[in-house]
Protein backbone atom coordinates (compact mmCIF):
# COMPACT_ATOMS: atom_id res chain seq x y z
CA UNK A 1 0.00 0.00 0.00
CA UNK A 2 2.75 2.47 0.94
CA UNK A 3 4.56 1.58 -2.26
CA UNK A 4 1.49 2.47 -4.35
CA UNK A 5 1.05 5.79 -2.55
CA UNK A 6 4.68 6.72 -3.23
CA UNK A 7 4.34 5.81 -6.90
CA UNK A 8 1.13 7.77 -7.16
CA UNK A 9 2.77 10.76 -5.46
CA UNK A 10 5.70 10.61 -7.92
CA UNK A 11 3.28 10.45 -10.85
CA UNK A 12 1.28 13.40 -9.52
CA UNK A 13 4.45 15.47 -9.03
CA UNK A 14 5.67 14.61 -12.54
CA UNK A 15 2.30 15.56 -14.04
CA UNK A 16 2.30 18.87 -12.14
CA UNK A 17 5.87 19.69 -13.22
CA UNK A 18 5.11 18.78 -16.84
CA UNK A 19 1.95 20.90 -16.72
CA UNK A 20 3.85 23.87 -15.28
CA UNK A 21 6.55 23.62 -17.95
CA UNK A 22 3.92 23.35 -20.70
CA UNK A 23 2.09 26.36 -19.28
CA UNK A 24 5.26 28.46 -19.25
CA UNK A 25 6.18 27.41 -22.78
CA UNK A 26 2.74 28.24 -24.17
CA UNK A 27 2.18 31.42 -22.17
CA UNK A 28 5.49 33.21 -22.62
CA UNK A 29 5.15 33.84 -26.40
CA UNK A 30 1.74 35.46 -25.93
CA UNK A 31 3.06 37.69 -23.16
CA UNK A 32 6.09 38.62 -25.28
CA UNK A 33 3.89 39.49 -28.25
CA UNK A 34 1.56 41.70 -26.22
CA UNK A 35 4.44 43.47 -24.46
CA UNK A 36 6.13 44.04 -27.83
CA UNK A 37 2.87 45.54 -29.12
CA UNK A 38 2.96 48.01 -26.22
CA UNK A 39 6.57 48.93 -26.99
CA UNK A 40 5.80 49.41 -30.70
CA UNK A 41 2.80 51.60 -29.86
CA UNK A 42 4.92 53.75 -27.52
CA UNK A 43 7.68 54.54 -30.05
CA UNK A 44 5.54 56.88 -32.24
CA UNK A 45 4.55 58.84 -29.12
CA UNK A 46 8.10 59.68 -28.03
CA UNK A 47 8.77 62.58 -30.43
CA UNK A 48 5.35 64.28 -30.09
CA UNK A 49 5.51 63.98 -26.31
CA UNK A 50 9.00 65.46 -26.34
CA UNK A 51 7.61 68.48 -28.20
CA UNK A 52 4.67 68.68 -25.79
CA UNK A 53 6.96 68.64 -22.77
CA UNK A 54 9.22 71.27 -24.33
CA UNK A 55 6.12 73.46 -24.33
CA UNK A 56 5.46 72.46 -20.73
CA UNK A 57 9.01 73.52 -19.85
CA UNK A 58 8.16 76.90 -21.39
CA UNK A 59 5.01 77.07 -19.22
CA UNK A 60 7.08 76.26 -16.15
CA UNK A 61 9.64 78.92 -17.09
CA UNK A 62 6.92 81.52 -17.62
CA UNK A 63 5.33 80.62 -14.29
CA UNK A 64 8.69 80.95 -12.56
CA UNK A 65 9.30 84.31 -14.25
CA UNK A 66 5.81 85.46 -13.22
CA UNK A 67 6.62 84.76 -9.58
CA UNK A 68 5.47 81.18 -9.03
CA UNK A 69 8.97 79.72 -8.86
CA UNK A 70 8.75 79.18 -5.11
CA UNK A 71 5.65 77.00 -5.39
CA UNK A 72 6.05 73.27 -4.91
CA UNK A 73 4.37 72.50 -8.23
CA UNK A 74 6.94 74.45 -10.24
CA UNK A 75 9.84 72.80 -8.40
CA UNK A 76 8.34 69.32 -8.80
CA UNK A 77 7.59 70.05 -12.45
CA UNK A 78 11.19 71.11 -13.02
CA UNK A 79 12.44 67.82 -11.54
CA UNK A 80 10.00 65.74 -13.58
CA UNK A 81 10.93 67.61 -16.77
CA UNK A 82 14.62 66.91 -16.09
CA UNK A 83 13.80 63.20 -15.61
CA UNK A 84 11.84 63.19 -18.88
CA UNK A 85 14.73 64.88 -20.66
CA UNK A 86 17.14 62.17 -19.45
CA UNK A 87 14.74 59.41 -20.51
CA UNK A 88 14.02 60.82 -23.96
CA UNK A 89 17.71 61.00 -24.88
CA UNK A 90 17.82 57.21 -25.17
CA UNK A 91 17.46 55.85 -28.70
CA UNK A 92 14.14 54.21 -29.53
CA UNK A 93 15.70 50.75 -29.29
CA UNK A 94 16.96 51.40 -25.73
CA UNK A 95 14.02 53.44 -24.44
CA UNK A 96 12.53 52.54 -21.09
CA UNK A 97 8.91 52.73 -22.19
CA UNK A 98 7.54 52.00 -18.74
CA UNK A 99 9.56 54.78 -17.09
CA UNK A 100 8.73 57.20 -19.88
CA UNK A 101 4.99 56.52 -19.64
CA UNK A 102 5.10 56.84 -15.86
CA UNK A 103 7.01 60.13 -16.11
CA UNK A 104 4.62 61.39 -18.81
CA UNK A 105 1.68 60.72 -16.50
CA UNK A 106 3.45 62.58 -13.69
CA UNK A 107 4.10 65.52 -16.01
CA UNK A 108 0.46 65.61 -17.04
CA UNK A 109 -0.64 65.64 -13.41
CA UNK A 110 1.82 68.40 -12.54
CA UNK A 111 0.72 70.39 -15.59
CA UNK A 112 -2.89 70.19 -14.41
CA UNK A 113 -1.81 71.33 -10.93
CA UNK A 114 0.15 74.26 -12.37
CA UNK A 115 -2.81 75.29 -14.51
CA UNK A 116 -5.03 75.21 -11.41
CA UNK A 117 -2.52 77.40 -9.56
CA UNK A 118 -2.51 79.90 -12.42
CA UNK A 119 -6.30 79.97 -12.60
CA UNK A 120 -6.60 80.49 -8.86
CA UNK A 121 -4.17 83.40 -8.75
CA UNK A 122 -5.25 86.83 -9.97
CA UNK A 123 -1.62 87.85 -10.42
CA UNK A 124 -0.65 84.79 -12.48
CA UNK A 125 -3.89 84.75 -14.45
CA UNK A 126 -3.07 88.26 -15.66
CA UNK A 127 0.29 87.31 -17.20
CA UNK A 128 -0.35 87.08 -20.94
CA UNK A 129 2.85 85.22 -21.82
CA UNK A 130 2.04 82.55 -19.23
CA UNK A 131 -1.52 82.19 -20.52
CA UNK A 132 -0.25 81.90 -24.10
CA UNK A 133 2.28 79.25 -23.07
CA UNK A 134 -0.49 77.26 -21.35
CA UNK A 135 -2.72 77.55 -24.43
CA UNK A 136 0.12 76.31 -26.67
CA UNK A 137 0.70 73.36 -24.35
CA UNK A 138 -3.00 72.48 -24.18
CA UNK A 139 -3.28 72.68 -27.96
CA UNK A 140 -1.03 69.65 -28.42
CA UNK A 141 -3.31 67.18 -26.61
CA UNK A 142 -5.87 66.65 -29.40
CA UNK A 143 -3.09 66.00 -31.92
CA UNK A 144 -1.85 63.09 -29.83
CA UNK A 145 -5.24 61.44 -29.28
CA UNK A 146 -5.05 58.74 -32.03
CA UNK A 147 -1.55 57.60 -31.04
CA UNK A 148 -2.49 57.60 -27.36
CA UNK A 149 -5.57 55.48 -28.09
CA UNK A 150 -3.41 52.98 -29.99
CA UNK A 151 -0.94 52.83 -27.10
CA UNK A 152 -3.63 52.54 -24.41
CA UNK A 153 -5.40 49.78 -26.39
CA UNK A 154 -2.10 47.86 -26.61
CA UNK A 155 -1.59 48.30 -22.87
CA UNK A 156 -5.10 47.03 -22.17
CA UNK A 157 -4.56 43.96 -24.37
CA UNK A 158 -1.26 43.27 -22.59
CA UNK A 159 -2.83 43.68 -19.16
CA UNK A 160 -5.74 41.42 -20.10
CA UNK A 161 -3.27 38.77 -21.24
CA UNK A 162 -0.95 39.27 -18.27
CA UNK A 163 -3.66 39.12 -15.64
CA UNK A 164 -5.74 36.27 -17.05
CA UNK A 165 -6.41 33.41 -14.67
CA UNK A 166 -3.96 31.07 -16.39
CA UNK A 167 -1.14 33.55 -17.04
CA UNK A 168 -1.11 35.56 -13.81
CA UNK A 169 0.93 33.03 -11.78
CA UNK A 170 3.53 32.97 -14.56
CA UNK A 171 3.64 36.62 -15.62
CA UNK A 172 4.98 38.17 -12.42
CA UNK A 173 7.79 35.67 -11.70
CA UNK A 174 8.95 35.90 -15.33
CA UNK A 175 9.14 39.71 -15.17
CA UNK A 176 6.07 40.69 -17.16
CA UNK A 177 5.29 43.76 -15.10
CA UNK A 178 2.30 46.02 -15.45
CA UNK A 179 2.47 48.90 -17.93
CA UNK A 180 0.73 52.23 -17.31
CA UNK A 181 -1.76 53.73 -19.68
CA UNK A 182 -1.06 57.28 -20.81
CA UNK A 183 -3.52 59.75 -19.33
CA UNK A 184 -3.80 63.04 -21.18
CA UNK A 185 -6.62 65.51 -20.68
CA UNK A 186 -9.15 66.06 -23.42
Relevant terms:
186 residues, 7 helices, 80% helix
Account of the 3D structure:
With 186 residues, this protein is mainly α. The protein has one domain (34-171). It is built from seven helices and no strands. The protein has helices spanning 2-68, 72-88, 97-120, 122-125, 128-138, 141-162, 168-171. Helix 1 (2-68) runs antiparallel to helix 6. It starts with a helix and ends in a 15-residue tail after the last helix. The model has no long low-confidence stretch (mean pLDDT 87).
Measured by DSSP, the beta-strand proportion falls in under 5%
Oligomerization: single chain
Residue-averaged pLDDT, rounded? 87
Q: Catalogue the unreliable spans.
A: none
Structural class designation: mainly alpha
Q: What general outline do the C-alpha atoms trace?
A: elongated
Question: How would you briefly describe this protein structure?
Answer:
The chain has helices at about 1-70, 70-90, 95-120, 120-125, 130-140, 140-160, 170.
List the helices and strands and how they pair.
Blueprint: H1 2-68, H2 72-88, H3 97-120, H4 122-125, H5 128-138, H6 141-162, H7 168-171
Amino acid sequence: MARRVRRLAVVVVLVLVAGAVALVLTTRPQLDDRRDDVDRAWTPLRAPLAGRYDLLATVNGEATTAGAGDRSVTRELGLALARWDRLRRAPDSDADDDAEATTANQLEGLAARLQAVVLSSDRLRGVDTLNQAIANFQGTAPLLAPAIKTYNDAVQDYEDTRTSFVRRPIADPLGYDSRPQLLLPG
